[in-house]
Amino acid sequence: MKKLLNNNLIKNYIILIVFMSILEITFRLISNIPVLNVAMIRVFIGLNIIALIISFILSWANRKYSKFLVLFISLIFTIYTFFQMGFNNFIGVYASVNTSSQLGAVTDYVREFLLSFLPKFYLIFIPFILLVLYYVFVDKFTELKLNKKFVLKRHIKYEPGIRIISTVLVIVVLSLVYQETLVNEAMQDDLQTVSNEDLFAYPSVPSLAINQFGVITFGFLDIKSMYVDPPETYIFSATGDNVSYDVDRDIDDTLWEEVIKQETDEELNMINNYLINSPIADYNEYTGLFAGKNFIMIMMESVNEIIINPELYPNFYKLYSEGIAFTNNYSPRNSCATGNNEFSALTGLYSIQNNCTANVYRDNLYSTSLFNLFNEAGYKTLSMHDYTEAYYYRSIIHANMGSGAYYGVQDLGIPYFNEYRNWASDEDFMDVAMDITLDDLDNPFMLWLTTVSSHQPYNVSSVEGDKYLSITENTDYPMDLRRYMSKLKTLDNALGILMDRLSDAGILDDTVIVLFGDHYPYGLKDTTINQVLDYDLDDYEREKTPLVIYNSEIEHEEIDKYTSYVNLTPTIANLFNLEYDPRLYMGYDVFSDNYWDIVTFADGSWKNDLVYYNAATSEITYYEENSYTIDEIRAINESITNKMQISSLIIENDYYTYLSEALNNVEIIKETYASVGTENEDILGG
Over 90: is that where the pLDDT of 62 sits? Predict the structure, then answer.
């Protein structure tokens, strides 16, 4: 026992387990993650395993060096935890090795990133400070006392064989107990749709993994995920997610059914069966409202509801107050908010939660994209953005989605800066975009625009940030907010240019404009945003952004359904009466009688006017008493998980390319049989 008290392995183990436990608890308290729940048992067991492994490795080192290494490792854990809190606060998700491309959003804006840290985040350094104080003031005194008491002049070691056997034995026992916590029903959350076992094998939802395993263990699991594939287990059934109903929209599934019959790849048929059995949205009173009109869709950089201001931003307000305004629209941030949200708006799919989907799968083809739907209807399609491809490979992504021509900032020939604080002017952008678009009006056009002027940073001087500071000179707003609002003025002026150019060309009445924000201005703190917006920003309310559909000939209308960018493609397809199959999208036509009135966030959380469900903590906030039963909450969770998993499989398998080729092959063979007069029920198997 005396040897144990003065043994390097045991001592380092005790120090590490105490330090990591305090660090983990501090992190959870700061991050509002429950501490008093069964997950903490698993977290604590996992920390024990980590502490034992590290202590065993350090036990072979000199005691002096092992102290230094304990301090160094503890500092790394502290900095990593501090970074995760800041990254989640700044970007909206926890950092992962699978989203390393998004680190550019931090390295390019390191000043803004550091300034975004909330004061309470610095409390995470308290455990490390206590550890340093222990080594400075307590450890040496304790060692001297032990040495004097046990007359030990130098470090007493275990025999190597005993040390190895005993440590391995304890780690094996703890690992078996840990494995039991992954599968034991008492240690599961009934509302959690990704099992802890699958989550441990591949931490596909970082926020949920951190809640269930702790931030330190997540770090190790995240590194491991670079070398393993996600588990191929899914909760959805082969017959789709919802109940079908009678519809007037007639779609012939003969060829698709034959593809399913002949397909031998289980994963592809899993997608086939899910989609073909999903409900077909029917025609509705909005179907074809804008058929044949020109279409302009604008994804507005970092725009939230601050822009809904008739005095400061009259052009946007005109569109908002005279068009169809969606009062509960959200643009949930994810691993690569701008690129992935643009991707979702154009495809009607959820991006993959833990990677920069738009970039990673840029070579995929999307026959169902918004560009291709308009291509099929005979439109000229174009897309433009007033910045370079430093972050997203739009020239490849948009081409593979069917854009007839993509123009980046160099192609547009407008002034821009390489320094991150100064972006191109949306005013210049809009003028040149109209020059190109209006040059040829022989066919109706579909134009996608992604703006940039209102991008952060806001806490440093910049051309667009300083240009219109006068509009807020009589306010007590902080300078970062004033610069943001100045940048919004540039965007609003660009919208004025757009309206004037369309009017001068005589096509304003024949053009539909859709505007939405890619994400809220996350370069501003919530307290700063609340100086303009007076509603509570918790429960994902900070993700609220405007969505407007405008045409000069329609009546103003406000839609209070809960919506997001994933609904845009099917909604627009219906408004223009484009040929599309509603089952091939994870979003819904907002105007459908069977619209699913829920907005889903990147980690599987969701809300509507009745309930907010936090997927990371499995906490339910009811806005009305007894809104849902637990079984109903669980059913919604499973439906959301189904859609996200199917969406991921579609992307990972380049499914639309596969389906187009498979349908084409079946049709060719069918026509071949018909041309030679052969009757064959089994087209491919005869």
Answer: no
